[in-house]
Amino acid sequence: MSAYYTSVDHFALIPALMLALFGCAVLLFDFLVFPSPRQRKWLLVFLALGVGFAGFGLARQQAFLAEQGLSDFTAFHGALTIDGFSIFFNWIFLAASLIVALVSYKYLEIEGEHHGEYYGLILLANCGMYFLACGTDLVTLFVGLELMALSFYIMVGFLRSDKRSNEAALKYLLLGAFSSGLLVYGFSILYGLAGSTRLGDITAAVAGRSAWDPLVFLALTTTAVGLLFKVSAVPFHMWAPDAYEGAPTTVTAYLSVGSKAASFAFLVRIFLGPLAAAREVWVPLLSAVAIATMTVGNLAAISQTNIKRLLAYSSISHAGYILLGLVAGNATGIKGVAVYVLVYTFMNLGAFLVVVALRRKDILGEDLEDLGGLMRKSPGHALLMLIFLLSLAGIPPTAGFLGKYYIFWALIETRHYLLAVVAAAYVAVAVYYYFRVVRSMFVAEAPDREPVASSFGLRLALGVTGLLTLAIGVYPEPWLALAQTSVLLR
Amino acid sequence: MSEHLLSLVLFTPLAGMLVLLLIPGSRKNLIRLWANLVGAAGFLVSIPLVLRFDKSAGGFQMVERAEWIPSLGARYIVGIDGISLLLVMLTTLVGALAILSSWSAIEERVKQYYAMFLLQQTGMLGVFVALDFFLFFVFWEVVLVPMYFIIGVWGGPRKLYAAIKFFLYTLAGSVLMLLGILTLYFQHFRQFGFYSFEIAELMKLDLPPGLQQWVFWAFFIGFAIKVPMFPFHTWLPDAHVEAPTAGSVILASILLKMGTYGFLRFSLPLLPKASIDPLVVQILIGLSLVAIIYGALVSLMQQDWKKLVAYSSVSHLGFCTLGIFALNPNGLAGSVIQQINHGISTGMLFLIVGIVYERRHTREIAEYGGLAHVMPKFATVFAIAMLSSAGLPLLNGFIGEFTILQGAFEANRIWAAFAVTGVILGAAYLLWLYQRTMLGQITNPKNLRLPDLNLRELAVFLPLIAWAIWIGVYPKPYFEVLEKPVAEIVERVRPDYFRQAPAAVAGLEVLR
Prior knowledge:
The complex is a heterodimer of chains A (490) and B (512). Chain A has 490 residues and is mostly helical. Chain A has helices at 7-32, 41-68, 84-111, 117-134, 138-156, 163-194, 199-207, 214-230, 239-246, 249-272, 279-302, 307-328, 331-358, 374-377, 379-393, 399-413, 417-442, 456-474, 477-486; strands spanning 72-75, 80-83.
């Protein structure tokens, strides 16, 4: 190994390498080795292998840090930093990718758009997320972001013959490109301030200036707007409901957890790294955004009749809660962000998976009414959905409560009492629309007699997400210990 | 097993529910039988609590502790004192009877119904035995979901509205309570350097009065909505009217007590300075008196039998909160006894409404009249329930109301004067209800052939009637059980009380 590619570099890169290699392999094998549609399941096996190898690399990194008693190590001259934070988030991404791929098989067949490159795109998007979690260089981060976003643009428009899917993809592409442009503009100013793209250097350069320095302010606002677009915070959320509704449901699920979690990892890295010195400027800014996000997300969700749009607005409101963890900004708050993202991943994924199961032959299954009588038709799905919705609403003993608990705790610790009260009040609002879904499932009559879609992958994925949503809530200790390591941000 | 007695009591219904889920939904009678067995077992395993309870010992008994979430400082700690002992026994008994009363009332989705009921039973018991605030909060919230379903699925015409209103109201209160809990939790960390939710630990806190006030009001919202105190009571009539009979019984007998229990267990001992603050006391007493009189007046003009009983709950719970904030041993002990009484009497009244409703499918009081002619057993049971609710001597209601009035009188005579009007109005609306429905000639031909109580229905009432008479005739054991915990609360809130007013302490002796 040369000075440009040391063994440490290799060690830090290996999960991403695996994801990228297997992603490209899936693309190639799709038409070279497995041209027949019946052989497509091998692509799923390839994806699982890729995720498995990446997971192995991640486990090695984790073990290495633990053995050496290190909090982190850097590679590529500081362009990548492997620490508890990156490892924690990467586990979440890998889990989300695997679960989404498992359920996509059946779903895409029903949609009649089953193509092998889908699995390649999942892996490539995951590769981009990897760099968002551990990148500590503006260029690395940006490339990671674009890799993820480009894969998603394609996946959102994957239903070629469906107008809604095409519209969603175009909207997402245009607004995504716009936000990336703003973000890069902010990055260019940060580079101008520091003369370096390393986050560490930029942190030092920003700290050397006053928080209200106009250049810092300009960099802060443009970067923040770009990032808030990605996490779909109000007022930069308009793309989310349309993209979520139009995209294939499995992609919506992936988008709402994978992309969002990665963007939050990115956001935390930037705000607690380079922009930490300007904290007094961005705390009021983010507080206002968080309140607006919770308000719009929760109030707009009330009147939705399409379950995907409802979940889209709900996921907007969850972004507001996560932002509050950052506003608190202390160790509890950061841990709260990590815990929240973790529980959000499983519960939100689970809720979308139930919607996936409702897509049957000729039935779109996206209306609230389509959930009607689910308890009679398929009690298992109804009970799982109930668990996911209770968790999304934050009712103990489900996992979602824990996320909210940490956010409230952090806000109380940092004396943001008013924010805490507002955030608490919106819990009650959220219950109202989540329980519209519950009401539909348990009280309303079924609109059709067609049984819900089912496949081994779907059942497994639903079982795992449901079990985790309950288990994290009832016995959270091991998961909290895992999240604890993520607080050790560099 | 003996050292895990409380856990056994707590988790018996849950275990029963898990087994119930394995029974196929089409075998309705097997499900009913199993649910009743679990209910009965839940009551039977709780009897040793009474036998083993040591009246002379202070503090908590039969305490069990285990680590649960060390990184939050949340533990599994359960234990009981005299107050929780009585409420636990009320829960296990009324729970079992409510399950028995549902046998023929619930025909649809029987399995889900009983599963929800048993889950709720564990939730309520958990609230009364938890000694860790986090654990308490989890149980507190767990109770909401089954009740939502019991009202929302098996309820009356406006069930969905009532169910979500109940859920939202209570939830809004409890999230604010959570913020209060977190404030105490964080203060504990600042003062002692470690996180804990244990009540005994939180009692060591030395908090400035200003902060205590904020936390007190946060708790107040949570508990007052649950009680419900005026003006937070509007969810109650809706929930009661729409809920199926057994749901109303549980709601009135037990769920509401979670609120008063919260005041006794948390607000008073943890926030003594705020609880004794004159303004706070005046506001709470004021709201209690308004509830007593307003609840009674509204009851007087109800056309709907069930709504009348629902509003009478508002009035009776007003007595309970009045007793609590009289802040003396008589008031507090009377309040706890009145909570039990209300559980017995109002539980019976709701069962009574349920029985006529099952036969006639209407609750309009005007539809009835002269039922005593065709349903003599029913009329007798109703008479006992009505008189016990109205506070006739030798029945339970009298003991509770009298002791509370004694406590109120000791604190402030004007309070007692207002409260007494509530007693009179209470007798008025109950007697009038009885007269309109039971006495006179049968005017409505539909009522001519109503069957009287059957054996199962009688079996539901008998234990409650026996209990009502026991408390009414021989309340001594209840006062003995309550003496220590009540003294501890008073000592905590008013440290100089027992030194200043030995005469008042002797006041309790009147009843012994």
